[in-house]
Design a protein that fits this description.
This protein is about 30% helix and about 20% strand. It has about 80 residues and is of the alpha+beta class. It has one domain. A two-stranded antiparallel ribbon has the order 1-2. The termini are far apart. The relative contact order is 0.16.
Length: about 80
Amino acid sequence: MYRIDLFSCGIGEYDTFFTEFAQDYENRMISATHLLVNRSNADIVAYMTLSMASITISEDEREDADIGISCLTPYHQ
């Protein structure tokens, strides 16, 4: 259906993930991959994968990266 074998973003690790792991991760509910497809020829223009995990960073890492705390604060009711 889609021309997955022809897709390359130019970053080897991303291409490998997309062609070799994305479908398996989706089936195992580890992540969800979404495609941007050219409707005229079924070429994949881009993909985005959302992970079902989170990355925890320390306060020092936040300061080093100049990341605002509000974007990393967990939601509490």
